[in-house]
Write a structure and sequence with these properties.
- By secondary structure, the chain is an alpha/beta fold.
- It folds into 3 domains: 5-160, Dimethylsulfoxide Reductase, domain 2, CATH 3.40.228.10; 162-207 and 272-304 and 318-362, Rossmann fold, CATH 3.40.50; 402-514, Beta Barrel (Barwin-like endoglucanases), CATH 2.40.40.
- The chain is 33% helix and 16% strand.
- The protein is built from 20 helices and 20 strands.
- It has helices at residues 5-8, 10-21, 51-64, 70-76, 80-87, 92-99, 103-115, 125-128, 133-147, 166-174, 188-198, 210-219, 232-235, 239-246, 261-264, 305-315, 325-335, 337-340, 345-351, 439-445, and strands at 27-29, 42-44, 77-78, 120-123, 156-159, 178-179, 183-184, 224-228, 251-256, 268-271, 280-283, 288-292, 353-355, 382-383, 402-407, 434-437, 452-456, 461-468, 476-480, 508-514.
- The strands form 7 sheets. The protein has a 6-stranded mixed β-sheet.
- A hairpin with a 4-residue loop joins strand 11 (280-283) and strand 12.
- The protein starts with a helix and ends with a strand.
Length: 517
């Protein structure tokens, strides 16, 4: 669901394709005709932003036909009756009106998912980058809990991360509510470990999300911003608004490996090192920790990220005297031993990779999470979280008749920070941005394939080459956000999920016009 897997996660897509040849049944749920359809059993081409209506209909079919796992529900879940009440209105026919997916396909998919020996849901930003992204994720969890498709081989929920080591970054304290080691900041016992180790008192109140931080800059409450490895001027929604916010800052510091659009805007740029120039660990999407080793000698005027942070801490009066990345890792292992205590560099050298949690040296690592759900021992109950469907915040109308959804292109990586610097001899399939438009819409507008058109929203406008393709349905257009020459995020909507702060990248209304000349 919401995953253009072949273009955004090609290695995982290759595994899926291989499994499909061996009999895996793949069902693709996506507004576009993506490449994964070549190996899929069924395509549910839903309207953008209607995921909850579709999932609630799946749940209702499973309840109506008695396909749910009664023993699992009784043993490990709570609030089952609340879920039943919430999904009652979502008949396949009603969901079909909202989603555009035929009722018979909704029923068939619900049966396939619930009746197999094991079903997994893989999702990514097409689920989370909505104003209701957290509710989308809750409903996916509802579906998995309802059928017992979690905590055993061949099942589960697999959120495909947007970049490498996103999981590791969050686990090491880059989330506003966690300490390094994925330890809750608000937990007195966990926080006390760090306070004792660092000889400081830590604020127990969770920090701000990026969204809230930008709001505070806009209100004048925050005057300095330090950005590491991000390019928000190109990557964030409503680009013109982001630039206006940054102009309010007294100090903008950017730490990166290239002079990104955001770095060009900064007061201070601190040159870091790339993945091939550093030592450390990565954690991938299934909690697998691997070693990273220096492959090439770095430029002498750069430093590893941790070295820059340590030197700044020293200057600001707090001594951080780590000698190398292994020393930092061992501190995390010692403080968050439940998660990482048994994962030493020595073991990673010998075993290649280990899945956390791994509390001690004799532990093999945890390959499958939530296995406790299928054990007879008493366990903490998992709540169903019933959610209701809410449409996208901005729908097409007479003035802006098209729905724009955004995503990634295969060869480009985020804002081209790294992949724009191609080596000679590398063949690139797509060298510029396009707005992908259906042939029927192109014909009505008099637009030909390859023609430069103007795309305009309530927030901005740009000129881009049209690509006439049946990958999208009539009324839907698609663009990526990779090219600074065509900054798609001048168009996108600055509405956010109230829980996560994630922006609604995936749905906004635009109009497309031919240029006069």
């Amino acid at each position: 669901m919401g995953s253009n897997t072949t273009e955004a996660h090609p290695i995982i897509a290759n595994r899926m394709k291989k499994a499909a040849k061996a009999g895996l049944k793949i069902i693709v749920i996506d507004p576009r005709k993506i490449d994964m359809l070549k190996v899929s059993h069924r395509h549910l081409q839903l309207n953008v932003g209607t995921d909850i209506a579709l999932i609630n209909a799946f749940i209702r079919v499973i309840l109506t036909e008695g396909l749910y796992d009664t023993k699992f529900i009784d043993q490990v879940t709570i609030d089952f009756d609340k879920l039943k009440r919430q999904v009652e209105p979502f008949t396949p026919e009603y969901a079909a009106e909202i989603t555009g997916v035929p009722a018979e396909d909704i029923v068939a998919t619900a049966r396939d998912y619930a009746s197999s020996s094991g079903s997994m849901i893989a999702y990514t930003l097409g689920i989370t980058e909505h104003h209701c992204g957290v509710n989308n994720v809750f409903d996916i969890a509802n579906l998995a809990l309802l059928t017992g498709n979690i905590g055993k081989p061949g099942t589960g929920i697999m959120p495909l991360r947007g970049q490498n080591n996103v999981q590791g970054a969050g686990d090491m304290g880059c989330l506003p509510n966690q300490l390094a080691g994925a330890m809750s900041l608000t937990n007195d016992e966990f926080r006390g470990r760090y306070e004792k180790e660092w000889n400081v008192t830590l604020n127990p109140i969770a920090g701000d999300t990026q969204t809230r931080t930008f709001d505070r800059i806009e209100m004048g409450d925050l005057k300095a911003l330090y950005i590491i490895g991000e390019n928000p001027l190109l990557a964030d929604v409503h680009m013109n608004h982001t630039k206006t916010i940054f102009e309010k800052l007294d100090l903008l510091v950017v730490q990166d490996i290239f002079l990104t659009e955001t770095a060009k805007f900064a007061d201070v740029v601190l040159p870091a090192r790339s993945w091939g120039e550093v030592e450390g660990t990565y954690t991938n999407t299934d909690r697998r920790i691997q070693r990273v080793r220096k492959a090439v000698e770095p430029h002498p005027n750069t430093k590893e990220d941790w070295e820059i942070l340590c030197e700044l801490a020293d200057i600001m009066g707090y001594s951080m005297k780590y000698q190398n990345s292994e020393e930092i890792w061992n501190e995390v292992r010692r403080l968050a031993w439940e998660m990482y205590g048994g994962i030493s560099y020595e073991r990673l050298e010998n075993e290649y990779s280990i899945h956390y949690p791994c509390p001690d040296e004799n532990h093999p690592g945890t390959f499958i999470m939530h296995e406790r759900f299928h054990q007879e021992e008493e366990t903490k109950k998992a709540p169903f979280v019933p959610v209701d469907y809410t449409p996208p915040m901005e729908m097409p109308d007479e003035e802006f008749p098209f729905m724009l959804t955004t995503g990634r292109r295969y060869e480009s990586y985020n804002t081209h920070t790294q992949t724009r610097h191609y080596a000679s001899g590398v063949k690139i399939k797509q060298k510029e941005e396009t707005v992908d438009i259906h042939p029927e819409d192109a014909k009505l507008l008099g637009i030909t394939d390859g023609e430069i058109v103007q795309v305009r929203s309530r927030r901005g406008e740009l000129q881009v080459k049209a690509k006439v393709t049946e990958q999208v349905v009539p009324g839907l257009v698609f663009m990526s956000f990779h090219w600074h020459e065509t900054p798609t995020n001048v168009l996108t909507l600055n509405e956010y999920d109230p829980i996560s702060g994630t922006a609604e990248y995936k749905a906004c209304a635009v109009t497309i016009e031919r240029l006069a000349n």
